[in-house]
Every structure is written in C-alpha cells, then in structure tokens.
User: Fold these one by one.
Assistant:
Number 1:
Amino acid sequence: MTRSEQRATGRIKEISSTANPIIKDIRLLEKKRHREQTNQFIAEGMKLIIDAIEQGWHLQTLIFAASQKLNPNVEKLAANCVAKGVDVLIVPEKVLGAITRRDNPQMVVGIFSRQFIEPSQIRTGGEDVWIALDRIRDPGNLGTIMRTVDAVGAKGVILVGETTDPFATETVRATMGSIFATPICRMSEDDFINFADQWQGLVVGTHLEGSVDYRTPDYSGKPVLLIMGNEQSGMPEKLVQVCHQLIRIPQVGRADSLNLAIATGVCLFEIRRHSLSLEQGAKA
Ligand code: SAM
C-alpha cells in the first residue's frame, strides 16, 4: 500500500527554511542516484503539473510559493491535491529557488514518480515512428529531442546504453512538458540490437558517412525506427550493422556535423512529413 493510499487526505505544511529535513531531502533529487532510489523527479510550472496529473502521472508532493496563497488557481490545485492524498508544502520563494536551483523559480513545483516502459510494451504498427538514442550525454539535447518527438507525433524514445537521465531537472525543463507525453524505454546495446533485428519496418541510422540523402527513403506505410549516434563518437559499428539504410543530412560550410538534437529534428520532420499538415495537425 502506498503512502497516499494509506491516507485519505494529504497534509499541508508551511516550511520556511532550506535546513528543514523535508526540503533537504527534496534538494537531493538534484542527484541521479537519489532520483533512482526514490523513483522521484521534479517538474516545474502549474500548467505542466495540471497537464501531467490529467495524463495520469502520479504527483507525490506539490510545493508552492507562499506569495501564491491567495491565487485562486493555486488554491484550487492545492485543494484537489490534498483531497487526493497528496502532501502540499508552502515555502518562501528562496526555498523554491534552492529546490530548483534557479534565481527566478516557477511558483509551483511538483514531485512526481518516474515512469519507464518495458521493451515488451513497445507495440508497433501502421506508420509508428520510434527514435533510439545511442548513449546520449547532454541533458539539453535529450530534453529538446523529447519535445520534438512529441511535436512531430513520434511514439517514443529508446535510450540505448549508458545515457543522461531523462528525469534530471535540466532535461525535464528542456522538454517543456513533453516528458509527460513521451514514453521512454531503456535498453542495453545488446538488447537493442535484438530489438532492432526484429523490427517490422524500416530501420534507419544517421551517420556522417551515410550514402543516402535523408530525403530519399520512402518512410510511408511502415513503422520506422530512427537511430541517432552519440554526440562525441557517433554510432558504433554494431549499431550500424542493424540499420537497413544509413542516411545523411547534406551540409555545406565548415561545421563537421550538426548538433544531435538539430539532426534529430530535421530527420523526424522528414520521416513524418507525409503525415503532418497545418490544417489537420497530424493526419495519422
Ligand atoms: N564526431 C561524431 C561522428 O563522427 O559521428 C559526430 C557526432 S554528431 C555531433 C551526433 C549525431 O548527430 C551523429 O551520430 C548523427 O546521428 C547525427 N548527425 C549530425 N550531423 C549529421 C548529418 N549531417 N547527417 C546525419 N546525421 C547527423
């Protein structure tokens, strides 16, 4: 039985100091190990928190600035949280700043449970697009990619090997709320190679030595698995071997390569081009 199931209503607490043990504990969520141990992460902003709750994410604690006590929208959210057994903390802005490590923090912050999906939960069909990120290192890149995956109507993200944490505060911030709309699956390199071998559709890798212009393949009528290489070293040979095609974005100028998140965006919008229109949003 979880803590919230044991209690019918949550508790409201006013805390004024960063030395309070509850705040000290929340601040530890800055560390990956603590996020893993507690299965928690921090998300900032009221609209984002309301959207996340509506999408079924489990809010464990709501924290808001004392200056918002008379804000009717915050009051309503806090009352709903308490009614559902979620604890609510009211703190000075400086404490919110310490929790989020920001000079100008959002006035409302939520502590959510992390969610990953299992490989067996990835069921593809139609024109589903999934993206695999090989050992992605940069939190900003990962957040930007998740936001793009959401915007383009791809189905989710597979993190291959040792990667940056999708639930790090910087990553969550960069997703601009798309963390709650984008399924995330983790796989070792070997498991991913098995997974890609069994993919019923097209497996495309992006590579600086790819011989296929990224605009050439026919991406329609089948599920597409797009593989992106690591920021520093690109894609290892083992992953190259599972790709049906290696695509490249033509470049001119002096840059050796594109930023990973930019390259991902360019490819994803091309892969989904036939399914997107201004009039209808996503057609499929
Ligand atoms: N030094 C790395 C290399 O030699 O591959 C550069 C990696 S690049 C910064 C990171 C990833 O972005 C690449 O592995 C690839 O997935 C993608 N990428 C960047 N520019 C690309 C381009 N012009 N065409 C295709 N993919 C590209």
Number 2:
Amino acid sequence: MASASALPIIARKLVAPGKGILAADESIGTCGKRFQKYGIPETPEMRRKWRGLLFSTPGIEKGLSGVILFDETIRQETSEGEPFAEYLEGRGVLPGIKVDQKTEPLAGSPEEELTKGLEGLPERLREYVGFGAKFTKWRAVIRIKENLPTDACIEENARRMAAYAKESQRAGLVPVVEPEVLLDGVHTLVRSEEVIGKTLRAVFREVKREGCDLSGLILKSSMALPGKDSGATASPGEIAEATLRVLLSSVPKEVPGILFLSGGATPEEATERLNEIVKKGNAINAPWPLTFSYSRALQDPVLAAWRGKDENAPQAQAIFAERVAQTARVSEGRL
Ligand code: 5MM
C-alpha cells in the first residue's frame, strides 16, 4: 500500500505533462449499451477482449498516465494470462478503479440521484490495493432542469464523495472526485457555469471538512456547456472561458490537477474544447495542469472499427493509438 506521502507523487504522475487518463470503467450496463449498437455479445469474455484491445495498443503509454478500470476488469487478464492492472503498470500506465456503485433516487426529488458505494468501501479498497490499483474514482451525477439541481442533491452527493475521498486516501489510493454536471437539458452556458461552481464549492467544502489532503486528490470535471437540447451553440473559446472562470473561482490551487470528462461530446468537440481550455489556461497561468479523462471521446471510433471482430483489431488499435496521441498533444495545447 502506498504511504500517505506517496499520494501527491501518484497524483502528479496522473496529470504529467502531455498525458491524460482513459476512462474504461463503464459498468456492465453502460458497456452493454455501447456493445448493443454493433450487435457485440454482452459477455464477460467480449468485455475482456475489448478492454484487452485498448490496453495492448502499441504506443498508448506515451499519452496515457492511467486507466480507470471497472470491478470486473481489474479481476480479468490479458490473453497471455497477465492481470490487467499488472500489465498496465508494466507499461508505465497507472491502474485505477471506479469504486462508486450505482445510484438511488433522492427522497423528495425523484429525478435526482445519489451515488452509492460507501458501505463496505474500506474492505473493497484493500482488495483493490491487492490487485495493484493506485487510484480510485467516484462519480456523482447532477442534473440541470428548471428547479434542479436541489441543494439536497448537491450537498448529499458532496458529503458522500468527500467521505469516499477520505477512505481512499486512508487506503493509500489517490481519489479522483467526479461530480458530473450533465449535458442533458435546455439550460444556457451561464446556468451550466453556475451549477458547476455551486457543486464544486460544496465538494471542496466537504473534502476539507473530512480532512482530506488536497495535494493527494484529483478533480474530474464537466466543461461548462449549454444544454444539449437548448438549441444554443457556444464556441470552444466561450466554453473555455466559462470553464476556466468557474474552476478558478471554486477549485483550491493545492489540487494537483484537473481532468475533464467528455460527457457525450463527439471526439472532435472534446478535442477542440480541451485544446482551447489548455491554451487559455496556459495563457493565464492556471494553477493546475488541465487534461483529459475521456471514455466515449476516446473509445467511440475504436469500438465502431472493432465491432467485436478479431480481424478488425489491428485497424481499431491504429485508430485508438491516433486518438490517444492527438488528445495527448491537445492536453499540452499543441493542436
Ligand atoms: C461521465 O462518465 C465518465 C467519463 O466518460 P465520458 O468521457 O464518456 O463522459 C466515465 O468515467 C464514467 O464514470 C464511466 O463510464 C462509468 O459510467 P457508468 O454509468 O457505467 O457507471
């Protein structure tokens, strides 16, 4: 197990210049939805093959500092029989693990959800340390509507997230806190910025109240964006300005780095927006490295090429290698 003093070192490795994180932690249901699109059988073996294809792609270690795994995946092996976590670490890519477990409706506000996963967490963390995990991730979902999010949703999700972060640090694992403000909805860019700010302030207030070491914790955030169904568009420049403004006003500078999720944006949008955020962040000397932790924006074109067929694997890996290389360049503002 890593000592408490190792946490900031691991955290800084995760946001090393020119690198970001592959989120490959889709739960069985979410992975199933992605597979259904191409008629890929939803079996543990096909999920193992898919993750194996991604992880064994030549050259990805140049652009990936880490990979977030799902519980099933951390128990699986490469086709040569090496556990995935060991295999990744051997390639210089830190293995992480998603530790939140499904959601429950918020009492009195049925459209909102609270993330579960605190029960039995210390035991699960110990097991993941045994598998070689170096960091963990916990996601909460915040929905924007006319009267949402409620304060109760933000506050309780923030409280649970902070409790998780503290447990993770106790276990010697760097927590990645991911309060995802969803893109779904008809809201404006201004409203997205407001909700992200309110959520992040609650998260960091609770994280401090728990006594977490801010230098051994990473934030994974949404970008500030107009709602998907709002009919509004915002340029990458406007998105970058709003995103940086809200982060600067709500994230402590001691945090070693900020990752962005892609949230349903296309690979091209996710690339362009990150590029602008990083360039503008560099121009104003933002206090943190800003990089990616994408799932769909890295994986979608790869899955479309693979379609569950062994003969498509080389082509799919070539596409993945290029997506990683391009996104990594962007994370240095080098597009
Ligand atoms: C928001 O989802 C995270 C980032 O993915 P995108 O870049 O596609 O937005 C992702 O890490 C997510 O937490 C996992 O895919 C797990 O999601 P589920 O819904 O399966 O728990």
Number 3:
Amino acid sequence: MPLPEIDLPVYPNECDAFGHLNQAAFLSLFERARWEMLMRGPGWDVFTRSGAWPAVRKTVIDYHAAAFPGDILRFQQALTHHGRTSFTMRQTARRVRDDTLIATAEFVFVCVDGGGRPIPVPREFGDFMSPRHGGDAQRLTVNGVSLAVEVRGEGPAVLFIHGYPLDRSVWAHPVAALEGYRRIAPDLRGAGESDAPDLGYSVETYARDLAALLDALGIDDAVLCGLSMGGYIAFEFIRRWRARVRGLVLMDTRAEADTAEGKRARDAAAGTARERGAAAIAESMLPKVLSAATLSGSPETVERVRAMMAGSPVSGLVGALGAMRDRPDSTDLLPTLAGLPTVILVGEEDELTPPARARAMAEAIPGARLVVIPGAGHLLPVERPSATTDELFDFLRSIP
Ligand code: MLT
C-alpha cells in the first residue's frame, strides 16, 4: 500500500500582507499532513503506545513557488532514513490545480522517552512508513552505517550489488529462485532501507561497505553480481580484494569512467535531486532505463521501478551521482581478470550501457562470455527476471 497523500487548503489567515502562504505557516501544514497521514494509518497514538515521542532535531525547507488562499496543496511523505532511535522524513507540497511544486522539506526526528532519553523508533511506525519491502531484511552495522540486507539460502555465496537509483528489490527474482546458493542482497548506503548519510560516498566506500558486510556474515569469498553502478563497485572491490571474488557477473554496466560531459550531467542531476526530489529523478530516468516493450506493455513494472526510484533518499542520490562521477576508469583492469569466471549480461535495448560496450568488455576479458537478452533495456533482473535468473544459474553451475 502506498502512503496516503494528504490534501490541505491554504487559509487566508496563513498568508502574509502580499497574499502569499507565509513561510512559518508551512511548518504547521507539514506537521498537519504528518498527523493526517498517521490518522489514516496506525493512528495518532502510534508513538505514545510505545512510550516514545518523536522530537524534531532538524528542519530544512526549500520554498519553490508561492501559494495563495484557496489553493489546495497535496502533501507526500516518505521515510528517507530509519535509524535505531532516529528517522528522517521527506515531505513535498504540490498545488493540486497545476501540479506546481510549492515546497520540499526534510525533518530529522529522534524518539525520546518521558525523560528525554533516546529510545528505539516504534516498529509499527517503521513498518507503516516502509511499505515497499517485506520484513525479510536484517540490519547490519558495517563501516559506520546500518545496512538493510536480505540473506537467503545456503551454499556458495553470491553478492548482489544493485544500481542507481535503485535498491535491493531489483534482485527479488534471483534472490528467491537461486536455491543452492547463499544469496546476499544489501541496500547500498544511501538506498532503500539502509542509512543515507549526507556525505562520504565513493565507489571505494561502497566496496568497503560490502567487504565489511561479508566479514560480518563470516563469508570469505563470493561471486559478485553487479548491475550498472553495481558493476562499477564490483570493479573497485576486485581491485582491492581480488582473492575474495570467485566469479563475476557484469550486468548492464561498463568499464569506462565518465566523460567530461557525463560528469556535468551528474552534477546537473544532483541539482535536480536537491531541488525537486527523488520523484523528478524517477521521471527523467524511467524512459532511459526501461525498454520500449517494458514501457508500453508492463505498466506494473513501470510503476514498481518508479516507486523504487522516487523513494530514494535525496542524500543517497546525490552521493551516488558524485561517486559515479568520480569513479576511476576500469578498462585496464579487464585483461587482468583472466582466470576469473566472468559473464556479461546486457539487455538488447539497453541505451545507457549498450550491447556494443558489453561486447567490447567481453572481448577485453579473457574467457568472458557475453549474453544479450532480447526485449530488455537497462534493468535486466526487473524487465526479464526469469531469463536473467536462468543465465545466472547456468553461470554459477559452470564455476568450478
Ligand atoms: C545505474 O543504473 O546504476 C546507472 O544508471 C549507471 C550510470 O548512470 O552510469
């Protein structure tokens, strides 16, 4: 179930001498929208039932356009960080009449008891605010962040590394289906239900998180399966911990660094994320990542990907864009992968990392196999889940 959207009217007494909705009145409207949302969900007393009170520790509001008496504003709420005792909520207000973005806000809360001491965020609240995932993830604190990670099955380990602006749910099919393997699918820092710190993102940091995650799970080595940005991270992991990698799946990805133009596009996208939020990133990315067949023939897949992208924490989006912009070129690494079982999977209609690039990578890695999957764009495991899982099975079985 998506979180309820809340429509609230602007009253004249909330406006200033120029007839604009006053900036201070916004605080009340954002708060009213939160209470309304709770009333339509677990109830106003969801906190007090657990003896917890959410105290606001930080508020950031961006005012984008003026609103006037009589306007109806639509408030959307999303949880962008769920810590042990704190959480961050992002809210947007749009004018219903013309869909103009009026304001965006981020509120950091700490749950405290009657004596003002921090206490855990009530589980019921977290479950209500994070409807995208089932309760099957565990949380592990590694390398200074708490990561949500799904771990299933027994056998040789396969570590799934998702792309941008996505989360671990892209791996739902192979994680459910690859029996006989220990499937590990984390939300990277800044994505899904993992912590989304404001700063400190790089492909090196992501790779260190993953190495620490394997340590925490007591796993020495794994097959790495990286989708797009996940591939960039896999290259970094191999540069540092080659001995821990038993095989490599490169999915819809590439080895080259960003061009100067590509770096400028990353900065522009980061500006969009900051000013207009994750929903705007989702709108611009959707047509680039899905094939024409998916866009026209699978509305439920389109909506699933849109919701995944639009639920991304802004700090995580901005962090990932900077990490991708600054990532090193991995072309020189490819010939050195001789002896590492490698398969390269690509959607036939992948525009972001097209089959020609995948073919060039396959030719540069001695012994690598290339598989082009028809009907898919840049998101193979979401657009062609069964075909992707079949290829993964074949590859995993081929590893000595
Ligand atoms: C991804 O899917 O991870 C990104 O689109 C990769 C990129 O933008 O380079």
Number 4:
Amino acid sequence: MDLVIRNGTIVTASDVFKADVGISGEKITAIGHGLTGEREIDAEGKLVFPGMIDPHVHMALPFGGTVSADDFKDGTVAAACGGVTTIIDFAIQAKGKSLAETVEARRAEADPDVCIDYGLHPAITDFTPEVLAEVPEMIAAGMPTFKLFMTYEGWAVDDGTLFATLEAAGANGGMVGVHAENYKLLMYLIERLVAEGKTAPRYHAESRPDFCEAEAVARAILWAEQTNSPLYFFHLSSRAGLEYIIASRDRGFPIYAETCTQYLLLTDERYDEPDFGGAKYVMSPPLRKEADQKALWRGLATGDIQVVGSDHCPFTMEQKRLGEEVFTKIPNGAPGVETTLPLLYSEGVGKGRISLNRLVEVFSTNPAKLFGLYPEKGTIAVGTDADLVIFDPDREVTISVENLHMKADYTPYEGMKVKGYPVITISRGEVICEHGQFKGEAGRGRFIARKRITRI
Ligand code: URP
Ligand code: ZN
C-alpha cells in the first residue's frame, strides 16, 4: 500500500472504531490492523474522518460591484486546511446565456486553480423554455442540483420558474435548492428604513426579518409538495423557517435543510460592533436571535436539519466599506470554509450538542448522499476515494485571521477558542495539508460529475 494511517479512531456516520486505513493510489484499499505501507502516518490519539464536503461556497463570486475575495485556488487551499476535501460552488446564469454556456465558463475559471475536488450547482436566473429543457441535460452531465434565488436584484426567480424547475428536477432524479427570502417584502422594508435614515449595518438585519425567510420557506414547500419533488434550503437561519420544514417532513415530504456555523454561533448583536464592524456580519439571511440558534442546534441533533455548509463568501473590510454610506451597498457574505469543521467539532461535539457520528453525517455523509457524491465520497470504506481528515481532538487553537488561509482580512470568530483541529488532510490518497501547510498543487482538484441524488 502507498499510505497507511495507523492506530487512528475511524469515525463514520454510523461507527467509531480503532483501525488502520490502507490507501493504494487514490482509493482506500484496506481497513484492518497491522497494515503496512510505503508511507505510514501514526494517528494514535487522533480521529480519522471522511473528508468534509461543503455544498455551499462562493469562490470569486461577482456581487454588489465587487468579487468575493477567494478565487478557486485561495478558497480551496483554505478548505483543505480546514479539513474539507470537496466543495460545491455555483454556476450562476448570466442573462441570455444557456446553462451549458454558464457551466463551461465557470469550469474554465475553476479547473486550472482548484486544489480539491469540486462540483457545480447551476443557478437559474433567466428562465426560458430552452433553459427548462436543459434541466435533465444538466442532471445527466453531473449537475443534479440547481440553485434558485428567491431574492437579489437580477437573480430572484418568480414562482412559475420555481414550480417548473422543481417539477423538471424532481422528475429526473435531481433537486432544487433555494435561497429563501421574500424579495418584494424585503425591498419594501429596505426602502422604508433607508427613507428613515437608517443606513448602518444593523439595519441589514432589520430589513430581512425571520418572517421574510419563513414566508419563502413555506411558499417553496407548497410548490415542492404539489410537484412531489425534493427541495433543499440553503443557509436556513430561523426557527420560524424551520417550523415549516419540520411540518412538511412530518407530512412525509423530502424537504431538506442546511444551516451554517454563523447561524449556530453568532447572533444579531454583532451588527452593533463599533467602527463599521457590524459590516463583517452582513450576509443574507442575516444573523438572528438566541432562540433561533437553539432551534437550529436542536434541528441538527434531531435530524430535521441534515447538512451544515459554510456559505463561504468572503469580502475584505475594504470591500465591505463600499457600503459605508448605506447598508444595501455592503457586499453580502462572510468567510467560513476553513473554520466550519473545528467550530462544529468544538461547539457541537465538544459541548455535547451533537454526537461525533452526527458531525460526520451533517458535514460529509449527508451532503455526499443528497448531492450525488456517495459512496465515493462521504464515508470511510474499502473502495471509496481516500479523502480523509486526521483530526486532533485535543489541539487547542484560538481562531484568528492570523492563522487562517482565507483571503478576507477578518474572521467572524476572531478570538474564539476551539478544542479540536484538523492536522492532516488527504485528498484521493495525496497528503495535501499538514499542520496548516498546504502541500498540493493548484489544478490537482477535479470536477466531479455527480450522480442523481439519494433521498435521505
Ligand atoms: O450573504 C450571502 N449569503 N452571500 C452569498 C450569496 C448567497 O446568498 O448565498
Ligand atoms: Zn444564498
């Protein structure tokens, strides 16, 4: 064998057991005891996870007159250092372009730079009969999941588009994922706040209240139930939205939700940080209240929320200052791809909110299943891709922008102490990150043609 990870504690979504993992080429070829190989890594006292899968990142995203700060190279180096071995980004349709052209252009950006494996969700913004006809073609070409924005100027889709795409994706083994916020309502609230002179970052949150998300969640669920199609909610932030999801799941519908560490760990008090500091947290949906956090943690533990993603969309403070005069001009998003695993471990497993197995399930196995990557990715078994994270459960780290690889010049978690940190990341048998040092090469990552989704 080329590489053996010895004496580690293997954690999958269902098991925790001590064994060696043997790797030949890009695959796991043995799990057992006393394995030997050309290179051996001693993982005594460490956890061995399947590589984490972040299904929601935005590298080099043009937004609000600027572009998110991590390109595919910077962002995937950071991902690797945070224990993530697969990302799914978006190919957002420009007006008048086909989905095929959109994907081709996005792949031309990503392929030369990407350091870990990746997939793309086509995002429909300009719906026509021709675009609808492309939905089954995209699924057959390895992109079974589509993003529809229910908000944002130029990207928001109408209910007809959502209904038709749900039907087409659901009938062909695919799935629609939505950014759920009521666009018209939030635009009305924005106009009202700005007219009242309420232009500081704090008013970003006030312009997008929880009921704005909940209404969009309820509406999308109604169309999904009518079309009998699976539906995924990206970055769910509110208890009010979660309640609609739970009710539909209780009726037996395949409705899925992702939340993000920012909604689990931060609250809207952050918008009051001095010196324009609140801009760091301007993201959509916005940060919420403690009651929402509690509901999200509970949903994660009970299974009503199936996935954690980062919604990694970093901007520097200079970029955020585009909105110094009015919050509507602050580019939306925050860095997170590198910090999700340590935060989820420390705040989730470490504080007894979720089990070790559940951590692997929500950040690796479930995204693999829901997004057509399983079983090659998302678990540790003979025959699967050797995407692995060696994780030191005792390593104490103070999260700081100084020791992260993401290109934003801040982290929302500055100064937060975590116990447990990834120490080695392996992608298809190659050690690509060791103790915070990236060892791989740009362009080594592959575009993964994903299969049809597995309903969970
Ligand atoms: O504020 C956010 N979330 N920015 C990224 C784009 C999106 O909505 O996912
Ligand atoms: Zn979104």
